[in-house]
Fold this sequence. Notes:
The protein is built from 6 helices and 7 strands, in the order E-H-E-E-H-E-H-H-E-H-E-H-E. By secondary structure, it is of the alpha/beta class. It has one domain (2-179): Rossmann fold (3-Layer(aba) Sandwich), CATH 3.40.50.
Amino acid sequence: MREFKICLLGSGSVGKSALAIQFTQNRFVESYDPTVEDCYRKEITVNNGKEKAMLEIIDTAGTEQFTSMVELYIKNCQGFVLVYDVTKKSTYEGLQEIKNLVWKVKGASGSNAPPMMVIGNKVDQAEREVNMAAGYNYAQEWKATFLETSAKTKVNVDETFMQIVEKIEGGNSKGCCTLQ
């Protein structure tokens, strides 16, 4: 069985764990418990339903004290989901440094960007500090895909993980992936 390794990256409390748990377990976690590192797994199908694959999601710490661990995860992952909280501008501003770290570890440049998504989470909240255009602009600049999500209401959660697998597969396999 093929395996896809996805790394969730972003500041603390942006909802990385909530997205992973909602995708893999179909439930929303209300309480915030800072993550050091967690791993979630879910079986999906790829190649237009012809092949089963395992999606392994590495949920990283949102603090700088674990940078060496994060670099190891980046080295071993194939796709990257950079998450910010649309209600906290500082989490959006911190993505540039995270993107730079991913590109450095993966030896990327403008012409060979790693498979990446920019995710604005918590769109169910009313008090927004980052507009949709800002996230979209980062994604365009970094050759990434952009979505806004809500782990709480499950808006674009499944789409996030299916689209990052499509990007790993080469970006031209629309509809390549389905959930089990």
